[in-house]
Each structure stands twice: as structure tokens, then as C-alpha cells.
Amino acid sequence: MRAGSAQSGRRRRWERSAPLPGPDRPRPLLEHLEELRTRLIISIAAVFVASTAAYWFTDPVIRFLARTSGGFVFIRPTEAIFTRIKVALALGLLAALPVVLHQAWRFAADALTPGARRVIRWTVPMSWLLFVAGVLFGFFLLVPFGAKVLLGFGNEAMKPLISVSSYVEFTGAVCLALGLVFEMPLVAFFASRFGLLDPALLSRNRRIAILAAYIACAVLTPGPDPLTAVMLFIPTYLLYEASIFSARLGKK
């Protein structure tokens, strides 16, 4: 009995000292830092390659933006080349974002529970798709319409003379803001999951939200044509409904 008890005690001590199998195994700090360095190198390389390839598409992007403003000027010798570099970096970041998000998820996966890993596995690609949808919506719809409204305030005493860098920065700010706004369904999902948002409240206030959204779209769009306001209102309304649906999923 004593020999069996001693052998059992040695087995328990060995099990406690043995490394844990799988991703939950504790790792030293240097190993974490080495993995972080590897993930950062992969992410930076992906952005660099994508930005280099995107440089060849900068002229079509700038020409598309110039159609709304009537053309650009540049007032510094380096403005034209640096604007092309900014556009290429923006396109490269957008294209390489899946790789960056995947590397971040791989680095953080070891510290997550299996349930959290399953949630993040579909959250990462969904967040990228929503962000891209917001950027495209801003680039092809809101920026042209907003530019027409803003340029319409000019008169004979104030004629627009727009530098290419200022317009590109304006476009980037609008697209970034809309990309973040389009993350609302995911935010609603997690807010409902943690008890911070009640989907029933969103449903009860649907009529008020629809009216407020249409009024905002009508104010932001130029001219009396209601079709333009409807074009902006439809994705806004769909985004609100998607937030209600995702909040209900998070509540379950």
C-alpha cells in the first residue's frame, strides 16, 4: 500500500510539473515576444506588398475623385508624389487587413477559451467585410454627394481650387468613419451578449430611427430629388435592421 501510495504521489507531482498539451500550455515571455515579432513582420510585409501593388491603381482612384471636384491642383512640389503614396498605403492597408487581423487572432488565440475562439473565428472576417462595405459606400456614394453639397456653397467671389492632398485626406476621413460605423452590427452583437444593449429597445424605436435616418439622408443629399435621399437611406436602414438581428443573436 505504501509503495502504491508513493508511486501515485510521484505520478501526481509529475502531472503537475509536466507541460500542458495544446495551445493552453504556459509559455515564457521570450517565446511570446518572439511570436509577436513574427506576427508583426508578416503583417508589415503583407501591407508593404499590397501597397506596392496598389500604387499602380492610384491614378485611376485620383481620376475618379477628380470627376466630382472638377480637377485638382497641387501647391507643393512633393504633394503629387506623396498623395500617390498615401492612396497606395490606404489601398494596401485595406487589402492586407485580413492578413493583419488573422495574425492578431493567431497571437491572441492561446489566451482565449474554445468558445471565444469560435466566436472570433467568424467575427474577424465579418468585421473586415463590414469595414470594406462602409469604405465602398463612402467612396462611391457619400463622398461624391457630400462634395457636391460642399462645393455648392461657392459663388462668384469664392471659386473652388482644391488641392489633391486635402481632397484625398477628406475622402480618407469619410471612408474611415463609415467603415467604423458599418461595424455597428458586430458592436450590437457583443453589447447584447454582455447585457449592455436590449434588442427589444431597438425594435420599439424602429419607427423613430427610420424617420430620423431619412431626414438625415434628405438633409445630406443635394437638390430636391428624393431618389438620391432614398439611395442613401436604404443601406442606413438595412444597417439598423442588421444591428437588431445581431443583437438578438447575442442575447441568446
The structural class is mainly alpha
Order of helices and strands: HHHHHHHHHH
User: Which overall shape is indicated by the principal axes computed on the Cα atoms?
Assistant: flat
- The overall number of domains is 2
Mean pLDDT reading: 81
The rounded Rg comes to 26 Å
Instruction: Give a count of the beta strands, DSSP E runs of length 2 or more.
Output: 0
Distance between the termini: 52 Å
Q: Major beta sheet, specifics?
A: none
* Strand percent estimate: under 5%
Question: What is the number of helical segments per DSSP (H or I, 4+ residues)?
Answer: 10
Describe the structure in your own words.
With 252 residues, the protein is mainly alpha-helical. It has two domains: 154 residues, no CATH class; 70 residues, no CATH class. 78% of the residues lie in helices and 0% in strands. Helix 3 crosses helix 4.
Summarize the structure.
With 252 residues, the chain is mainly alpha-helical.
What are the salient characteristics of this protein?
single chain; 252 residues; 2 domains; flat; disordered N terminus
